[in-house]
Amino acid sequence: MTNLYLNKGKEESLRRYHPWVFSGAVHHIEGEPKEGDFVRVLTHDGTFIAVGHWQIGSIAVRVLSFLDEEINHQFWTNKLATAYEMRKAIGVANNPQNSTYRLVHGEGDNLPGLVVDMYGETAVMQAHSVGMHNNRMDIAKALKDVMGEKLQNIYYKSETTLPYKADLGQENGFILGSTPDDVATENGLRFHIDWLKGQKTGFFVDQRDNRSLVEYYAKDRNVLNMFCYTGGFSVYAMRGGARLVHSVDSSQKAVDLVNANVGLNFPNDARHKAFAEDAFKFLDQMKASYDLIILDPPAFAKHRDAVRHAIKGYTRLNARAMEKIKSGGILFTFSCSQAISKEQFRMAVFTAATLAKRQVRILHQLHQPADHPVNIYHPEGEYLKGLVLYVE
User: What global pTM score does this model have?
Assistant: First the structure.
């Protein structure tokens, strides 16, 4: 395994267990490792600090262990078993009412660059680094050993998440088993999971708890679910007793999927209608007939250079919804942009309330669920931000 030496004093963040080594901290590397190779990270005087995946870019090493150990089958098995035990402890795994959860959440599970979502007997694995891509078959074997008969299929979906400059030519596909069954259960509700061509791993698992809160508030309300994608919020609102539910997405494919998911749970239910339309256009033209609105847009800022533009987008979107929502209405609003801080998002929403000239109170501050844990040494992992607002 190649040794990488840090500049003097650059080991302090690693001594606090931060899982990244930035390129500016690197003094030199012995030899010429390929991207994705394992490297041992040493201080300037040769003291061992960590072992991880070498990569090209601002993050030079993603740390796998702070022990001087071999990364082998036993290592992967131990890490995955720890992640699985935690999901069982919090009640999302081995739950007959819930077969949909995140099993591995990158740095949050001390496996930076790896995401694994469970949908029934199928795991969807996603690599965000060349190192995890190179180790995908070892990880798949360890995952099967840990989960046994509860895991029958592994779908590898990393075509769009791997560094494009690595030029790996990766195509999505099953690396264990195969299945035409794309239905999984979340809190007793059934959903089609589009792991073949859908966003993320096919479903936004991170909104499970927040969908339950929508269900709680939906009774006898007219609900508008913007950026609906698979319609998770819409289905929960219907189970919560909403008077009507309208789902909006710019993608006709998403509209077809939300209609299919509503049909799975509430066949021939006239309360639901879906629209394939631009969100801002829909909000501009709609009448003030909704008293519960959900705004869950895609990330407006995927990197820090886009933050200023994103804040303007969040402000405009929330202002328009506040202008149109009924008095006494409830607004769920979210940002999944990691580059946007909680403070920046709240300021955008505050500005929107001022522009809309509405009295607004915060009822809840929302975040990602427990199966998307934040490593206490890696606060950057807290990406999902949400507010539930009461609009007078």
Answer: 0.93
